[in-house]
Amino acid sequence: MIVMKRIKSLSTLLVLIVTLGFISCDTEPVDPVFLDYEPEVEEPASFQVDFSEQTYQATTTTVVMENGITTIAAVRASDGAVFTLVVPGTTAGTYSASVIAYAPGISGNQYTNMDGTNISGAVTFTAVNTTNNTISGTFSFTGYWSDASENLPSVEFTNGIFINLPFTSDTDPNPNPGNSSFSVDIDDETYIADNYAGTIGNGLISIGGTRGTSGEYVALVINATTVGTYSNEDLFFGYSSDGDEDNVYSNIDFGGGENDAQLTITQIDEANQTISGTFSFTGYLGGNSKSFTNGQFTNIPYTTGQGTDESEFMATVDGVAVDYIDDLLVGTVNNQVTIAGVGADHEINLFIGTLGVGVYSIPGDNFSAPTASYTDDNDVEYNAVSGTLTITEKAGGWVSGTFEYTVQDEAGNNVHTVTNGTFNVEY
Question: Where does the signal peptide begin and end (predicted)?
Answer without folding.
Answer: 1-24
